[in-house]
Automatic annotation (TrEMBL):
This is L-arginine ABC transporter ATP-binding protein. It comes from the Bacteria. Keywords: ATP-binding, Nucleotide-binding, Transport. The keyword Acyltransferase does not apply. SMART domains: AAA (SM00382). PANTHER family: AMINO ACID IMPORT ATP-BINDING PROTEIN, ARGININE TRANSPORT ATP-BINDING PROTEIN ARTM. Residues 2-236 form the ABC transporter domain. PROSITE patterns: ABC_TRANSPORTER_1, ABC_TRANSPORTER_2. One of its GO terms (molecular function) is ATP binding. Pfam families: ABC_tran. Signal peptide: none annotated.
Length: 240
């Protein structure tokens, strides 16, 4: 569904992604792990063209989208993104947060968007919060709204950038559970995470980045039990 070929990104003379070549299959759940500063967020941001790659190709289905005049809004409509710090619209209620883009970008009728939003809010366990403003919600609730909001666009794939890193420990599970359910529905997901248990249990594949390089790419069992590179071994020694 998504394929990168020699994807590279530089900020000035800081080479942040170096020739990343990978393919994400429909329905696949990929966990992206690696040390801080290794390029994980930049990789995700390139996938939905929030960052313009310096070189290389990004294919979405049969279209090369990094070097063409592809309509970036069109790509982003199909790839939802969830951030560490939620990025909810503070002046809108939960329901308005979830219906805003479907009405504005997808031109859904308000009733239709609200019906979809209510179904999604039920799915993430927030039916009783639809009239609340974000500042009245816990971090875990905010993140579940952010997930519902991304899903309201009916995306083909979802990108998550450390969705639980800003949460108090007791709220991590409620968000990971929503993500697990989503994975079980067959959603294509790329998840940057430090939650190694989630990566082990839910991911079909691990991508390990180090200093902008894709050092290893393997099934979780193989990666966690038999990492091939010293870098991965050192990383796992620190986090496990
Ligand atoms: P990670 O998510 O793995 O922690 P990032 O992708 O955020 O890593 O960052 C990788 C490197 O790119 C870091 O050195 C960071 O400082 C740099 N970087 C990220 N975004 C920008 C930007 N917009 N401008 C300049 N440098 C950036
Ligand atoms: Mg990051």
């Amino acid at each position: 569904m998504i394929k990168t070929i020699d994807l590279s990104k530089e900020f000035g003379n800081n080479s942040v992604l170096k020739n990343i070549t990978t393919t994400i299959q429909p329905g696949e759940v990929v966990a992206v792990i690696g040390p801080s500063g290794s390029g994980k967020s930049t990789f995700l941001r390139c996938l939905n063209l929030l960052e313009q790659p310096s070189s290389g190709e990004i294919w979405f289905h049969d279209n090369e989208v990094a070097n063409s005049n592809a309509n970036k809004t069109e790509i982003r409509k199909n790839i939802g993104m969830v951030f560490q710090h939620f990025h909810l619209f503070p002046h809108m209620t939960v329901l308005e947060n979830v219906t805003y883009a479907p009405v504005k970008v997808k031109k859904l009728k308000k009733d239709e968007a609200e019906q979809i939003a209510k179904e999604l809010l039920a799915k993430v366990g927030l039916t009783d919060k639809e009239s609340s403003y974000p500042n009245r919600l816990s971090g875990g609730q905010k993140q579940r709204v952010a997930i519902a909001r991304a899903l309201a666009m009916d995306p083909e794939a979802m990108l998550f950038d450390e969705p639980t890193s800003a949460l108090d420990p007791e709220m991590v599970k409620e968000v990971l559970d929503v993500m697990k359910d989503l994975a079980q529905t067959g959603m294509t997901m790329v998840v940057v995470t430090h939650e190694m248990n989630f990566a082990k249990e839910v991911a079909d594949r691990i991508m390990f980045l180090d200093e902008g390089r894709l050092m290893e790419e393997d099934k979780p069992q193989t990666f966690f039990n038999q990492p091939k590179t010293t870098r991965a071994k050192e990383f796992l020694d620190k986090v496990l």
